[in-house]
Amino acid sequence: MKVLVTGSSGLIGSEAVAYFDSLEAEVIGVDNNMRADFFGPDGDTTWNLERLRKAHPRFRHYNTDIRDRVSVFDLFERVRPDAVIHCAAQPSHDLAAKRPFDDFETNAAGTLNLLEANRRYSAEAPFVFMSTNKVYGDAPNELQLVELATRWDYARAGDHDGVSESMRVDQSKHSLFGASKLAADVMVQEYGRYFGMPTVCFRGGCLTGPNHSGVELHGFLSYLVKCTVLGRSFTIYGYKGKQVRDQIHSFDVVRAFEAFIREPHAGAVYNLGGGRANSISVLEAIAAVETRAGRRLNHSYVEGNRVGDHICYISDLRHLAADYPKWSITWSLDRILDQLVESQLALQPSSPISPRQIA
Fold this sequence. Notes:
CATH topology: Rossmann fold
Radius of gyration: 19 Å
Strand order of the largest sheet: 3-2-1-4-5-8-12
Largest sheet: 7 strands, parallel
Number of helices: 12
Number of strands: 15
CATH superfamily: NAD(P)-binding Rossmann-like Domain
Low-confidence stretches: 351-359
CATH architecture: 3-Layer(aba) Sandwich
Mean pLDDT: 94
Strand content: 15-25%
Oligomer: single chain
């Protein structure tokens, strides 16, 4: 089986490369390191590409820009993949407002280029799109909430499992990033429904793991760990720091991809996150990371929240679990936090401070 992965040097893309290589698939990666252009040195994924090349000798990498239609079509015509995993994206709310054309051309037009190339040269190949919960805009903020000591939570029992796929995607504020991802999301669905292609949108919550080049504008938990360990300052934006996200490890994300590729259908949509068990607020995350890292985080608070930001977002996983009952969350929140902190501390071998020094 030949699996083509876009964004192959990023968090989810690199996990997909490693996972499908372990299944003895032929993995073709597409990544031109736009993350470095978007976010500077902290976003540079060259280190991850080199790691993949060393660990997976069969892996082939192409420095293709998904915005370049001719290059994308040429690649698909030559490779003719058996499955496509599309993770490449401009992922930041704030950056999208500063660079709207780069954002839309990457997220929306780039996705269209891949879909049409797939239709022309590998129409039967499952097309997996890493979408985002930002396609719902700020509509999840309309759910009734209750303020607790360290987090916001849903007030109604019926909302306990979180946001389902029935949440509306229009008439709300998305940020330009959310709008470009929604355009791509709908197009992926349409290629499934209109052309009968096996396509799926996985609307991700907070995706995390040790291979994340986390930056302030994207990668909350990874960036929080980095700031704590390196002694950098961290800014909390609004909602009293009680905003909640559900965290899912990149490994569990890719396992969901595999489940769909093995049993695909046309125009599928699933919310994909850590669920309630893996939910955590910013304040709770700071405390948990400080304890594990053995040092305090230098943080400040800004009253205004980021545009279109969610107050409380937990992914309702029941639809995905019903269609793919063999899939489940295997990485707990505690295990994720342990790994993130230990991985960052391992990069600081001369540090005299041992983990878990703070009681």
